[in-house]
Amino acid sequence: MTVFELNTDRIKDNILALATIIDEDKPGYTRRPFTKWHTQSREWLMNEMKNSGLDVSIDVASNLIGKREGKNPELPPIMIGSHTDSVVGGGRFDGIIGVLAGIEIARQLNEKDVQLAHTLLVVDFTGEEASEFGISTIGSRGMVGNLTQEDLNRTNGDGLVLRDALASVGGRPEDLATESLRPGDLSLYAELHIEQGPVLEQTNHELGVVTGIVGIQRHKVIVEGQANHAGTTPMNMRFDALTTASEIVLAIEKVANEEYAEQVVGTVGRLFVEPNGANVVPGSVIFEFEVRSLDLQALDQMIEKIQREIAEVEKRRTVSITMNQLSHADSIIVDEEIVQLIEESCETVGTTHRLPSGAGHDGNQLAKIAPVGMIFVPSQEGKSHCAEEWTDFELIAKGVQALGNTIIRFDQR
Ligand code: HGY
Ligand code: MN
Ligand code: MN
Ligand code: MN
Question: What's the pTM?
Answer without folding.
Answer: 0.95
